[in-house]
Write a structure and sequence with these properties.
The complex is a heterotrimer.
Chain A (H helix, E strand, L loop, with lengths): L3 E6 L11 E7 L2 E8 L7 H6 L3 H9 L6 H16 L5 H30 L2 H22 L8 E2 L2 E2 L5 H27 L1 H7 L7 H6 L5 H5 L6 H4 L20 H25 L16 E9 L2 E9 L5 E7 L2 H6 L1 H4 L3 E2 L3 H7 L4 H5 L1
Antiparallel strand pairs in A: 1-2, 2-3, 3-9, 4-5, 6-7, 7-8
Helix pairs in contact in A: 2-3, 4-5, 4-11, 4-14, 5-6, 6-11
Chain B lengths: L2 H12 L2 E6 L5 H7 L14 E2 L8 E5 L2 E2 H13 L5 E5 L1 H5 L9 E3 L9 E3 L6 H14 L2
Parallel strand pairs in B: 1-2, 1-3, 3-5, 5-7
Antiparallel strand pairs in B: 4-6
Chain C lengths: L2 H10 L8 E4 L3 E5 L5 H11 L4 E9 L4 E9 L1 E9 L5 E3 L8 H12 L2 E3 L30
Parallel strand pairs in C: 2-5, 6-7
Antiparallel strand pairs in C: 1-2, 3-4, 4-5
The chains are: A alpha+beta, B alpha/beta, C alpha/beta.
Chain lengths: 361, 142, 147
């Protein structure tokens, strides 16, 4: 009988960009079970928000996560605007959605590169991250920052798009389109990627529902949820896009879903630019928020982002609850890491698209 | 200075191998550090390689404020690196705790746990700033 | 959200007396039920449609009570609110019905000191191993970590 070894993966590991610790119980080449420890990136943001005003909390909320920072601040500002009863101008909704979709493209390209690197295809990692730079250039021209944009205020957005900026965006999108075709085509057509990822980390539709999984992982298992379509609000209720689902539930299905979503986001951005309405970009918001509660859901690159805010009438929030989409994905990992080969662990960990900064807050 | 010392100094300056560790940050500075490996910024042309193990690295590129859970691991990684070694704190959070100062789980900047040689501010830090910081370190090596 | 459907489930669960039902912004229905009826309520809505999605479990300290909110979603939002005692709050865990609730309950337990009976893994999710006493989201003076 072979002895059982306990192998730690993390908190510092070449696979992981963020600290999280797994302990794998291994017998020979087979991982029998695993346990994980979160909390390395826990900064106590929910408590910190209660000690700041609503306006100060916008900057804190943006820094929960570097990859999905804009959608966090959009959800928060939308929730506070609902509590204040503000009518945000349509142009502001469009500009927010533009950055949300740009962020989705940059997040999916980032993930594809990291998956390629962990499989061993370093060149594909270089291609996807080089093409991602074009998206970061667009975001930098728009807002001044590559990763953190600070474009949301309570009441709308801070930055307007003039014709020159829109022309730059259209030009850069045209530059991006053929590169996306090549980079995404590499994943779809290269047999190494599909052989390496098929049949690994399978989550069935029942398991996905029981673990309350959201986002591309749920859609790859056949669960048809997408907050952009299910909670109709501007501008998504006026734009045309498809919700991509797959049935296999393995890492290959998730790769295909994210590739299709990147293409859908590219189409959405073109529609947003062509349909951008005129008008103001923000309305004035009061500092004190009337007492009440609000629940707000948005579609982050990794799934449904949930905010609950309770206000007690002062200018500081009484409670902000943030549930990020990585948390239910992490709860499926012990099942995915049971009775697998040790060599498949990088593929499984990459397939979940970990964003530990979001999960730990 | 003897010839051997001169050659050692030249070798250390011209090929600093870096290790990247995130001790509790939001991941913004980390994706900018991983961006350094990509074709646009390409730190390999400067002789800098990103390493996987602390035992092969000269420089620890550390981001994020030090959280209570992360502190011991950070000190362990620092002790696993062989001398001569340097630490670069990247980002406002790494320099001083940044926007998370005052939280119940955050100690402060990286210098609360390990000695730091270079501080690079920014939220998040641009890749050009990180390259400038590493090159400043290499000039200061004697 | 059909009010009749909600009233049916409340009757099955044997909720006596007037029930506080409100509409919150962004299409959310808010229901307050006693803490010992929560498990049965969740059981009946899962039997009605097993694709009810649990978005989050929020715990909050309102100053006088500990409130636990279960946020569900299926086409429309449904928030179950239940109030627990300030000293030693206890409630039955719903992980037998929804395994994905384990992470949310662990977080509520460590942040507010709520005891979930029948929750298998009660270890800290986010707080560090060296955490002293105290619950960060309670309205007491915030505790610092041991050290």
């Amino acid at each position: 009988m072979m002895t059982k070894l306990k192998i730690p993966v993390g908190p510092h590991h070449p696979l992981l960009k963020e600290p999280i610790s797994f302990l794998l119980t291994v017998e020979g080449e087979r991982v029998l079970e695993s346990s994980m420890r979160l909390g390395y990136v826990h900064r106590g943001i929910e408590r910190l928000c209660q000690e700041r005003t609503y306006v100060q909390a916008v900057h804190l909320i943006e820094r929960i996560c570097g990859i999905c920072s804009h959608v966090h601040s959009t959800t928060y500002c939308h929730a506070v605007e609902t509590l204040l009863g503000l009518e945000v101008p349509l142009r502001a909704h469009y500009i927010r959605a533009l950055l949300c979709e740009l962020e989705r493209i940059h997040s999916h390209l980032l993930w594809l590169g990291v998956l390629a690197k962990n499989i061993g295809l370093d060149t594909v990692f270089m291609y996807t991250w080089r093409d991602r730079e074009i998206v970061l250039d667009i975001m930098e021209d728009l807002s001044g920052g590559r990763v953190s944009h600070a474009i949301n205020v309570i009441g709308g957005v801070k930055i307007d798009l003039d014709q020159k900026m829109m022309d730059i965006i259209i030009e850069k999108l045209e530059e991006l389109a053929p590169k996306l075709t090549i980079a995404l085509g590499l994943f779809e057509n290269e047999p190494t990627v599909s052989l390496r990822t098929q049949g690994i980390g399978v989550i069935t539709k029942e398991e996905a529902t029981r673990h309350c999984v959201v986002g591309p992982i749920a859609r790859a298992s056949g669960v048809d949820i997408d907050v952009r379509r299910d909670v109709p609000r501007p501008p998504y209720d006026r734009l045309e896009f498809n919700v991509v689902t797959h049935t296999d539930g393995d890492v290959w299905a998730r790769t295909l879903v994210r590739i299709m979503e990147t293409r859908e986001s590219h189409r959405l951005i073109q529609q947003i630019i062509s349909q951008l309405p005129s008008g103001d970009i923000a309305v004035k918001a009061k500092r004190r928020v009337p007492p009440g509660e609000v629940v707000c859901r948005f579609e982050a690159p990794r799934g449904e982002l949930f905010y609950y805010i309770r206000s007690d009438g002062s200018d500081q929030p009484a409670r902000i609850k943030i549930r990020t989409p990585t948390i239910p994905a992490l709860s499926t990992l012990p099942d995915q890491l049971r009775e697998v080969n040790l060599a498949d662990v990088p593929v499984i960990l990459s397939g979940v698209d970990l964003c530990i900064a979001c999960a730990d807050r | 200075m003897s010839v051997i010392k001169y050659i050692l100094r030249w070798a250390r300056r011209k090929s600093l191998w870096v290790l990247h560790y995130n001790s509790g940050g939001c991941n913004g500075c980390d994706i900018e550090i991983v961006d350094l490996l990509t074709p646009r910024f390409d730190i390999e042309r400067l002789g800098i390689l990103a390493e996987a193990s602390p035992r092969h690295a000269d420089v620890l590129l550390c981001t994020g404020p030090v959280t209570a859970q992360s502190k011991d691991r950070l000190i362990q990684i620092y002790h696993q690196m062989p001398a001569p070694k340097w630490v670069i704190a990247v980002g406002s959070c790494g320099c001083s705790g940044g926007i998370f100062t005052g939280s119940y789980n955050v100690y402060g900047g990286i210098d609360q746990a390990i000695p730091v040689s270079i501080f690079i501010p920014g939220c998040p830090c641009r890749p050009e700033a990180v390259i400038a910081g590493i090159l400043k370190l290499s000039e200061a090596i004697d | 959200m059909e009010l009749n459907w909600l009233q049916d489930i409340l009757q099955k669960v044997e909720c006596v007396g007037p029930v506080d039902i409100r509409r919150l912004p962004e299409d959310e229905t808010w229901v307050v039920i006693p803490f010992d009826k929560v498990f049965d309520f969740v059981k009946y809505i899962m039997e009605d449609d097993s694709t009810w999605h649990l978005s989050a479990i929020t715990g909050q300290d309102t100053g006088s009570q500990i409130e636990l909110l279960y946020h569900f979603w299926l086409g429309h939002g449904l928030t179950l609110c239940t109030r627990l005692a300030y000293e030693n709050p206890q409630i039955k865990s719903i992980t037998a019905l929804i395994p994905g609730a384990a992470f949310y309950e662990r977080e509520a337990a460590e942040m507010l000191g709520i005891g979930f009976t029948e929750l298998k893994d009660k270890s800290f999710l986010l707080l560090p191993d060296a955490w002293g006493k105290g619950w960060p989201l309670r309205k007491e003076k915030k505790e610092k970590h041991d050290d």
